[in-house]
Amino acid sequence: MFQPTIAFRHTRMTRPALTASVSLLLALPAAAQTIAITGGRVFPVSSAPIENGTVLIRDGRIVAVGANVTIPADAQRIDASGKWVTPGIFNSATALGIMEVGAVQNTVDVGARGKGDGITASFRAWEGFNPASPLLQVTRNDGITTVGVLPGGNMISGQAAVFDLSDSRSRTEMLLRAPVALIADLTSTGTDRGASRGEVLQRFRDVLSDARDFPRRRAEYERAQSRELSARKADLEALLPVVQGRTLLILNAERASDIQNALQLAKEFSLRIAISGATEAWKVADELAAAKVPVIVGALSNIPRDFSTLGARQDNAALLQKAGVRVIVNDGTDAFNARNVKYSAGVAVSFGLPWDEALRAVTINPAELYGVSDRVGTLEAGKDATLVIWNGDPFELSTRPEHVLVRGNDVLRPSRQDELVRRYRRLPADYRGRP
Fold it and tell me: What is the DSSP string of 278-292?
């Protein structure tokens, strides 16, 4: 098993100027092109690493991956000798595109107020997605090519979507799939912050029961002849695919007992679930593995942040993987640092997660979780040419992407941060430290 050394100290780094090779690739036409990435150490994820491998791309799709690929004469070649080639990094849980400035309300589209009861299942996070957000380019430039965009802020927050980070200005073109999951929080009490866990769980059961029964009671509801339901009609209809097992339910739960409640709820209503947060998931790893429940887990929790996370430990991901749980690495939904997910994967390696499993945790595992593994997550013929050419181990802090391809187009560009660095690199001659 390949096991490189992983750096796990977080530092802030300034991006160097973009290379001339990137400019050359950007000059290529957006369509009807053949690209051959040659000579690199290729990590298909779906199979063993390939030394001196080739990835052949035609019209935005991968057509061949291997050590002995025939390259057409008209192909544009990218020499990846000494470089690493991996699928693009998939950040499974972000507010990217639906949050710009946290303190400016009209740039925050993460959640809905609803009627104040904490149930906004019909809220669609992707409808507020801003394809022109300056945060997208910063994220692309660190090799993040695909993101799960998740709502939040309520007991049942709404529906999530998956976007690829192409440089399109069209939300429709960037959207890979929606909805991919419904997001809920077993530790949230909506607007009633004094409710106990038992109350929250019972309320959740009431909502799921009403959603399950709603189709046969719809006529009564329309005639105003039914009892008052636990949620609005639109929210019950949005929950229907969840209680029918057709849509994934992602439940945020930190404490081991909260996770056990989630497993019981899934069994009671035959739900297809995943757990996010999961600070104490290592305590119930065997139960999660037996139930085949994936876990979206961080790698930076080494001390408790509240009484729900007293069992925090940084080898959480490693312990879960060892028990047979499918692990997706993520550390919060912060839109501003969505690019840091690959460093979280590196930290997980430092604390025992095998390197190849860490790569799976930020590529194919989230792609399978959200039902987009036919498009992204591995380097295989027929999939989107969404990949990154790195100058080293992608989990190392000093490693930078040299090419970031989304559907065959290089999206590496100067970001707003790069432009600001360029503007203020040389201060005026009369500058004397004035604010």
Answer: -TTGGGGHHHHHHHT
Query: Can you tell me the distance from the alpha carbon of 249 to that of 294, in angstroms, rounded to the nearest whole number?
Result: 11
State the pTM of this model.
0.88
Q: Which residues contact 175 (CB under 8 A, 6 or more apart)?
A: 126, 129, 161, 162, 163
Measured distance CA(132)–CA(318) in Å, rounded:
37
**Domains, the chain, ranges and CATH?**
12-88+377-413 (2.30.40.10), 89-374 (3.20.20.140)
Residues composing the chain: 435
Query: Residue 227, CB half-sphere, CA atoms under 13 Å: how many?
Result: 5
Q: What are the distances in angstroms from CA 20 to CA 25, 237, 394?
A: 9, 52, 21
CA distance 128 to 150: 11
Q: Give first-to-last CA distance, the chain, whole Å.
A: 53
Task: Give residue-wise pLDDT tens across range 264-285.
Answer: 999 999 999 999 999 999 999 9
pLDDT in tens, 353-380: 999 999 999 999 999 999 999 999 999 9
Q: Are 137 and 145 in contact (CB under 8 A)?
A: no
> What tokens appear for 358 in the block?
């860490």
- C-alpha to C-alpha distance for 428 and 264, rounded to whole angstroms: 64
Transcribe 251-269 into DSSP letters: EEE-SHHHHHHHHHHHHHH
Bridge partners, 130 (sequence order): none
DSSP of 376-392: SSS--TTSB--EEEESS
